[in-house]
């Protein structure tokens, strides 16, 4: 007779065999068997998060940073529901994640069991819910089903997005025959033929501009893209959530045009207008990424290669493997008679910055804080940036480190993503991660810092404390006549507060720009986590193109205290919430 093992042991064995070494989650009665199985498997570490959203972003950050399949686990009911925004981000950004979600025992389905989400007899339908935020969702109703569902789920996740397995407690404990291990070899995928692009490049007369997207990171194709860029002597811009795929030291920094779109660099439109050919590589160019470029792209010959066609009409080559397709393209353009002889090196590579209006009020300027961080950050550091004015400033002005990752979750743009993502990345990459997040994002999910402190992870949390949801304050000022504010907070002292709460945590407040270099330097020098909370102002306008355009359009100017005012500007009144 076959040897038998529990479904949970089967899952952990198979995941380990495909290279999974971390599971991120929060425990509970309907997922504890999986924690138990992980405990007895030497190669697998189960990490305990404080909130399932952050467990999901740990898995997302781990996967996005190229550390392998991100796996998250959660119990039934409220625990499972907390995963939804995290999985939504992974879905929108096509990040490979596997979610293992506990369910109450099947015998009680539709009979009023605690946390019933069977969809029966009026219960919430987890299958329907999670189908909407995943690329694969299956409720396992007999032990044998796991033998086919698990490899299907893993394969679906690798095609780009979260796969969900709903695992009732009794099924988790049931026995299945011990199987040979899954192979870690990925399924064969569609490798697009880049010949039409090679032909166009050979005919091109002038310079080439490349806009690179997040699929370059997903397919681990940075080196292949760099080879192509060097061959074409092209200028490269990246979409905001793919800042680390090109243009950093070692990856064509001297040809970098910066970031496209709302937080982007204005010179990119000119570069495109001036190009004989524009190549979109691994991006659909959504609105956040293409704002300000549509007119230029409409006028320049544009071709695309990637797993999904861009939102703009152009010739598109479908490929699920950019690494292979970019290599093929470089080969097609190498050797005697194959070179694209008409491509020209552009004369100047402009790297123009957005220039927000000068602000002379209280606090440290975003630009100053970001520059101070840039000056002290070593090469081998990864960066995760959160939402808001803080995020826009860091995306616009903070360069990627050599061989570093720069992660930002623009799929759903949910605040608080950075805290869990940094933890996932620190486990996966084993190097320091720097989080740049606003105080509002901190108040949402910053308590996950406790997990970094508990596991002594090398993460430096740089908080921009403007005592507000400042991006919303800016919107009130620019679009709602600046006559009230819902979005300012009663001031808090984050640095001192965290130092008191988590003994031994290096955590400081900085209110003077002159203190930034030493405070940031000290925070980066230690072994474990650290916090630097920088006092900023909610009245400063960040480098965010729509805000600057609105300012210009309304004829707004900077008032006597440095506060941007509009014609109708009236004094602030505290809004009643
Ligand atoms: C989960 C979530 N809720 C609401 C929003 C809308 N939103 C965008 S930015 C922002 C304020 C961000 O505040 P903070 O993190 O302090 O950054 P700041 O803009 O102050 O620099 C809000 C509420 C969002 N992006 N995500
Ligand atoms: Mg804030």
Question: What features would you describe in this structure?
Answer:
This protein is an alpha/beta fold. The strands form 5 sheets. A 6-stranded parallel β-sheet has the order 3-2-4-5-7-6, with helices on both faces. Helix 1 (about 5-15) packs across helix 2 (about 30-40), helix 3 (about 50-65) runs parallel beside helix 5 (about 85-90) and helix 16 packs across helix 23. Mean pLDDT is about 95; it is low at about 560 and about 565-575. The structure holds thiamine diphosphate and magnesium ion (MG). It catalyses: 2 pyruvate + H(+) = (2S)-2-acetolactate + CO2. Keywords: Amino-acid biosynthesis, Branched-chain amino acid biosynthesis, FAD, Flavoprotein, Membrane, Thiamine pyrophosphate, Transmembrane, Transmembrane helix. One of its GO terms (molecular function) is flavin adenine dinucleotide binding. Pathway: Amino-acid biosynthesis; L-valine biosynthesis; L-valine from pyruvate: step 1/4; Amino-acid biosynthesis; L-isoleucine biosynthesis; L-isoleucine from 2-oxobutanoate: step 1/4.
Essential attributes:
single chain; 577 residues; alpha/beta; Rossmann fold; 3 domains; 6-stranded parallel beta sheet; 24 helices; 22 strands; disordered C terminus; binds thiamine diphosphate; binds magnesium ion; TPP_enz
Extract low-pLDDT stretches: 558-562, 564-577
Note the gap between the termini. Answer: 67 Å
Number of strands: 22
* Fourth CATH level, the homologous superfamily of the largest domain: Thiamin diphosphate (ThDP)-binding fold, Pyr/PP domains
Strand content: 15-25%
What is the total number of structural domains? 3
Structure ligands: thiamine diphosphate, magnesium ion
Radius of gyration: 25 Å
Structural class: alpha/beta
| Helix run count | 24
Strand order within the widest beta sheet: 3-2-4-5-7-6
> Helical amount among residues, as a percent range?
25-40%
CATH fold description of the largest domain: Rossmann fold
Report the oligomer.
Answer: single chain
The rough form would be described as globular
CATH architecture of the largest domain: 3-Layer(aba) Sandwich
Largest sheet: 6 strands, parallel
Average pLDDT, all residues: 94
The CATH class of the largest domain, by name, is Alpha Beta
